[in-house]
Amino acid sequence: MSMDRRSGCPINLSLEVFGDRWSLIILRDMIFGGRRHFRELLNGSMEGIASNILADRLKRLMGLGILTKADDPSHKQKAIYSLTEMAITLVPILAHLGAWGRVWLPVSAELSIRAELLEKGGPQMWDKFMDELRHEHLGMPLDTSAGPSVRATLQAAYEAVVAGKAPGASPAA
Amino acid sequence: MSMDRRSGCPINLSLEVFGDRWSLIILRDMIFGGRRHFRELLNGSMEGIASNILADRLKRLMGLGILTKADDPSHKQKAIYSLTEMAITLVPILAHLGAWGRVWLPVSAELSIRAELLEKGGPQMWDKFMDELRHEHLGMPLDTSAGPSVRATLQAAYEAVVAGKAPGASPAA
DNA sequence: CAAACTGATTGCTTTTTGCAATCGGTTGCA
DNA sequence: TGCAACCGATTGCAAAAAGCAATCAGTTTG
Predict the structure, then answer these.
(1) B73 touches strand D (CB under 7 A)
(2) Which of A113, A137, A149, B166 could pair covalently with A83 via S-S, beta carbons 3.0-4.6 A apart?
(3) A122: left (phi > 0), else alpha (psi -120 to 50), else beta?
């Protein structure tokens, strides 16, 4: 919530939504990590988000229409968080943000391989990924066999780097 | 400064740089508004930044290598802030951020015309704009006459909308 | 010499962030 | 049936950041 509306500038309004240290981290973990539950986001967060902040941001993102929440039929207490189309269209922004960080900031090799592949894949890969997310989160049909999923591809590359057999990059240790 | 290094993830590191409500606003005003001086940024800011926060962010962005400061020869007290290449390569991110905000947030017509044109111009227009910024801020040569500058084009469109004779859009009032 | 302007700085209050502990309810297992 | 582990949060508290208003010393302008 908390729509300040400091101005109607698109960049300012986007910043009022994402101008904090956690909202995009949560969306990153949902989009690239495939996390859907509170505990997954809490314990799987590499940066160590606190539970009250996670709860606050989930609430806020729901209020903004970026996430939705539904009951998990397998567990009466479990909630499943889903991305809306609004969130899925952030993929190009996250790709650019990762690409920029990879060039200018002290990223680690393991964690930047995903950003590198996503950058090389370009808009075509981003579109494919967004279609996969629409399938997972919105129940949209997935077009006929387009090979391994983007997330699986990124994950496999990450694991290869961790294992020290980086394809095209020098081993970390 | 304040490099937490919560993790070496490119998106996280980018967020540690821009995950606040003001840093990108300042860069937006420098990039699209052409502002170079403290007072220009302070008084020209549509969102009303406070002087202490502006001073803090300028210092921080300099420490990160995103801005540089130089004396203005015409005025012994005046400082000129310049974008580094690191800042100039943010243009695509700002373009995407503006495009996303324009679609999903309650932007005003006057302030979103720039984002619209920049989106339609695509990477080609962004590259041209970045070259112009390199010329202004880094003293790089500008390639032979490529028509009116991107900033001038955006500014003209903005003024046209304000004047109510929006090309292709309905008048605001 | 005075007024206006330069890039800031200081003191202060309000708001946000982040940590640690905890909550009531659910589930799985012995 | 009991009980530990897990579920999505909530609460209390301290620290940090944001934001406001006033002010600063030096510079330029008139």
Answers:
(1) no
(2) A137
(3) left
